[in-house]
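Example record for the data management plan.
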Amino acid sequence: VLSSITLSQLGFVCAGIIFTAENMYSFFQAVLKTRSLPIGINTFIALQLILLVPLALIRNISKLGPAALLADVFILIGVVYIWQYDIHSLVDYGMNESVKLFNPSTFPLTIGSAIFTFEGIGLILPIQSSMKEPEQFPKLLYLIMFIITCIFTSIGALCYATFGEFTKIQIISNFPQESKLVNAVQFLYSLAVLAGNPVQLFPAVRIVETSLFGEKATGKRSATI
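Corresponding structural encoding:
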């Protein structure tokens, strides 16, 4: 179980790093109005380590709360924009003609994406242990899971209804790239994923450290960092 959590969280963080790098590259392409930049996506990936490495050294997950909250605010801004754009487009132009109610060829991808959506599952125990009133955690968990399920389901359905088979993996790329508002949302969403990566990395780092050095070496002393 610990190995599965470690591998999954590392995979989520790697995906987040690549996502951020690609979006930042696209953002600067749109802002600078050029097809090529003097630095590539690999450079954007390396630059993220400047922020990720120091934050990964924090051993008390509650200390990462401000970064996670900032990421949530940026994501909320992006979600609100996507909602209003999709609803406005559906009202004006209707549903895309290429929409299929069920596509068996890509259904496994749907399952994988749904699992990836709940990538924070490995953070449940660390978050509960850091709460002032951990007995309230089950109620909070049920509420949050319900809310994010509604958000993700609505975003997926609305975007697919709007763009149909032309829906891209990075949905923000479907929106007008010449729009400054789209560029701003793209930038904020990239920052949100970047700020959330240390939180996603926390369980993997904690498990690896405990396996290598033991609980005592990563316990009370490191918790004060």
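Summary line stored alongside the record: The CA atoms of residues 79 and 155 lie 8 Å apart.
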